[in-house]
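Sample entry (310 residues):
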Amino acid sequence: MDFYDKDLVSIRDLRREQIEYILDLSKKMVPYARGEKNDRPLDGKILGNLFFEPSTRTKLSFESAAYRLGMDVIDVSEMSMTSIAKGETLADTIRMVDAYCDCIVLRHPYEGAARLAADVSENPVINAGDGAGSHPTQMLLDLFTIKEAKGSLDGLDVALVGDLKYGRTVHTLAQALTMFGVKLTLIAPESLQMPQDIVDRVKSKGCDPRKTADLEKAIGDADVLYVTRIQKERFPDPAEYKKVADTYRIDNAILRSAKDDMIIMHPLPRVNEIATEVDSTPHARYFQQAFNGVPVRMAILCAILGGDPQ
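Predicted structure, serialized as tokens:
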């Protein structure tokens, strides 16, 4: 697969066969991610972790993936720790970090930042989330979680619930799922529905998503329920956030109408949208989903940097 020395910025950088390759390689990485096997195929490589926006799972799983593969990590956790605070441009910061590592992972609050970084960096850039834009590595671990639970991605009924307007995870995931012939249901209040440009891209791939605000009516058909929190930090007006906060809540009562083998996913962190009582049900997959970030990101790093654990 032609991943070597390439950037990973957007879902549009990937074809179905490339996604399947990463998912297969991720399966191989699971025992290494758990520490059951040990190998260091990327020994001597350095990962530059630049996280200019809060992150727990993405940041830590990239670090864990790097260490499991034998890499060293240089880390910046906020812009105030760089010369950007002195007026340096993002482009110049990326050029400098590029000189100190073999691959850059970037999370940034502004959409388009990862593409800019890829344009100026000699080494590969991996987008770890840019504003309300794209989050391709989250999409890959989401697909891996679904495939591990369901055995296949083809033809599933997937419901995306919550903040579909600002949630970059669902923007990327919706586009990827169209490669596998899924049925998509978009569950959100009208003010938080999927942006039209994403809907248009999905339709151009042959998927005509159903839109609704009624979770209770839609949940019974779903094979996968992908829940997102209402992204308070992306609302320009706090009053608008208050209107839609806590719109949906998944609890055991609403799950009575769900299929027995329906799985619930969430990119985390959750706030109030999934009750803790759901954690102990067979439906819950969100903590497994969080762990899956390690083997999937190990697979991505190996594919881009040329490592293959034995």
